[in-house]
Amino acid sequence: MNERDFQLNPFVERFNEYINKINESLSREIESYSWSEFYLPLKYACHGGKRIRPLILTLAAETINNDNISSLNSKSRENIFAVSSAIELLHTESVIHDDIIDSDNIRRGLPSFHVKYGYNASILTADFILGIILNISAKTNNNRVTHELSTASIKMSEGEMLELRLVKNHKISQEEYITVIENKTASLFEASAKIGAILANGNEDQINALANFGRLLGIAYQIHDDLVDYNNEERLFNILVKQNDEDNIFIEIMENTYLNYSRLAKKELDGIECNHHSKKILQDLTNLSSFS
């Protein structure tokens, strides 16, 4: 991520210290595959992005630890940043697939992966990324982490498949829309927060609270994102809007819906005792304007 990205992105600028550490870990992981033909495509696929999901994992770990990650032993720190890379890579893999499915030709101001490298290379690179994720998971030697990564991947695929069916039918209910984004988007937010708590050795109540936080925040995030872009995109949310006679009233209903999910996400953090600034940041993230 270059200096221009920071200047244009207050979110990235605010979390510069965290994101730099996440990017360093991700770069180390990618550099370990410098021997591969997938190396340059992998670097291109991972370029840019706000690193929201690994940021949530890192903040969740600090919230449970009630201290900076630097206070943990070296193995725990290594695992946290390694799995944060796996989370970002899983998101990257889904982005490659999504851009093909949605026929999106631009991503983060650059040609989408399939536009630059072609469809065959896109499929193979996504497979290669999955192999990297499996390798990271194996090195953590933590079955719960592996399970959460696997569960998120399965849910993301289920959400995408359901969306394809609903778009094809051009008919969707609000409940079906929520189900799609709960799987396609919120599942990785949930996994991020939950894994952070697991790696910081949280108790079950803390782990569940952060898992719920991530899921609810993910739903709010996607509704907010769809509200911002719905005039420019012909996708699931547009179909939902067009089914309603009173567009303005429905948009207001959906704005209230995402605000409600944001409030519920923030409430999940109330039961976690923590004086560290990381908890405050997680609370602040429930204000979706902070992502803009």
From TrEMBL:
Pfam families: polyprenyl_synt (PF00348). Its cofactor is Mg(2+). Keywords: Magnesium, Metal-binding, Transferase. It is an enzyme of class 2 (transferase). GO terms for biological process: isoprenoid biosynthetic process. One of its GO terms (molecular function) is metal ion binding. The keyword Magnesium applies. InterPro entries: Isoprenoid_synthase_dom_sf (IPR008949), Polyprenyl_synt (IPR000092), Polyprenyl_synt_CS (IPR033749). Its EC number is 2.5.1.90. Belongs to the FPP/GGPP synthase family. This is Octaprenyl-diphosphate synthase. It comes from Candidatus Nitrosocosmicus oleophilus. The lineage of its organism: Archaea, Nitrososphaerota, Nitrososphaeria, Nitrososphaerales, Nitrososphaeraceae.
